[in-house]
Amino acid sequence: xxxxxxxxxxxxxxxxxxxxxxxxxxxxxxxxxxxxxxxxxxxxxxxxxxxxxxxxxxxxxxxxxxxxxxxxxxxxxxxxxxxxxxxxxxxxxxxxxxxxxxxxxxxxxxxxxxxxxxxxxxxxxxxxxxxxxxxxxxxxxxxxxxxxxxxxxxxxxxxxxxxxxxxxxxxxxxxxxxxxxxxxxxxxxxxxxxxxxxxxxxxxxxxxxxxxxxxxxxxxxxxxxxxxxxxxxxxxxxxxxxxxxxxxxxxxxxxxxxxxxxxxxxxxxxxxxxxxxxxxxxxxxxxxx
Amino acid sequence: xxxxxxxxxxxxxxxxxxxxxxxxxxxxxxxxxxxxxxxxxxxxxxxxxxxxxxxxxxxxxxxxxxxxxxxxxxxxxxxxxxxxxxxxxxxxxxxxxxxxxxxxxxxxxxxxxxxxxxxxxxxxxxxxxxxxxxxxxxxxxxxxxxxxxxxxxxxxxxxxxxxxxxxxxxxxxxxxxxxxxxxxxxxxxxxxxxxxxxxxxxxxxxxxxxxxxxxxxxxxxxxxxxxxxxxxxxxxxxxxxxxxxxxxxxxxxxxxxxxxxxxxxxxxxxxxxxxxxxxxxxxxxxxxxxxxx
Lengths: 289, 293
Hints:
Mean pLDDT of chain A: 96
Low-confidence stretches of chain A: none
Shape of chain B: globular
Low-confidence stretches of chain B: 1-18
Distance between the termini of chain B: 41 Å
Structural class of chain B: alpha/beta
Radius of gyration of chain A: 18 Å
Oligomer: heterodimer
Structural class of chain A: alpha/beta
Helix content of chain B: 10-25%
């Protein structure tokens, strides 16, 4: 990767041409929209609602199905940038079948979405260390490309789940997916999201995400990709210091435009220079004793 | 000049929230009035300060509580902070909206998107089909009063489906432009498509800008005619919207997001987009021919 920033899964990741814009704006890699074997329409609206310092979403894992992602993967790779393909499923074999298709279509890595908090059948996997291990092991057997497991924060011990994934062969961890959350409108007296419960993202969750990355980095050997509420370059530094080797950006795009990627990398470079470092890698985990 | 309206709402919480306004959270308001525009087409009027300042071509995401959230072109009132949306039956959300009554609550967030360009053109041509007429009426209200001669082709499948005829006629004629009606079945005006009429009117130098909104094949033909006559044109597109705010990517056309880079696009951009007039993404994100959901 030319820089440690990536586009997080779930944003703009349906079409190769929109992903191309993200890459041209400076992202070091992109993660596609989570796809499974079968197409899914997702939830009716409202699918998003803004909350203070954050966003709730219950899009419902809408996707055209992994087999239709070929053009997207080709478009990304044509720009010389890693294409990470996010997959999910409702059974162990669905994960490995989707991952195998992703590999065949040219994915440079797969990111296993075992943590979407608002689609039942998926998020529960990430709350069960045995289920996570089963899925990870099965996908590792099915593909040769790196397997990254995206963890849920909606657990008592994210380190337990992370260690389970690592022991099952995960090549890296992405932490964190969204927090299970909701918003109720007091005039209609109804939950705003049609799916009622959604996932919270954005600055509101950053302290949770930083804590998760810190705890995982202290106990795991595999690299961690940090994600959750990054909006400015200082946030990137914070995640690196906590132990992330790379970061993902998502919700911030709602408030800023795609120029955020170059803002982040420029800010990070300045920080590195001004603090007497020579490389990003020197920051990774530097906050640990 | 629009005056802010300050009468007490039945729902004081709408005005009394003490947190800073969240742009992407629905503001819940009561329906003030319902107008039958045509069989199975109704306009719903509500008060919302922010959408009352919508530029022509911008849209709002309308929360139909308990059912869906749907994108609608915003037609602000010319004299107060009320807004009109014009609904025809297309799915669960519009279906419920058509059965709602005065006093029922809906949510509105927006305005979203880029509206039509206006640069004091001397002669403009507006071509509207079906409910595509709505954003063009917003535009016409603005520009016909600013010394631009506006001609308007108002098309529909049949006479009963023509919208805003009287207002459009009055504004165009008053501005010195030509007003024409087309219906597919010939029940009013000229028999045929709005683009047949457009073909007749669009000649080199005949207009400074052409604006169109309606079924996408109609808009594609109009943009092509304009390009051929070397007249700049703009079209108001529609796509599957989920977030409506530029992050999910569902509404993409080529590299653009219709909710953020559009819904109004100019001909220079449109003529480079193979999907324009041909294909769109459905709810699952799969590419399908226009007209299929």
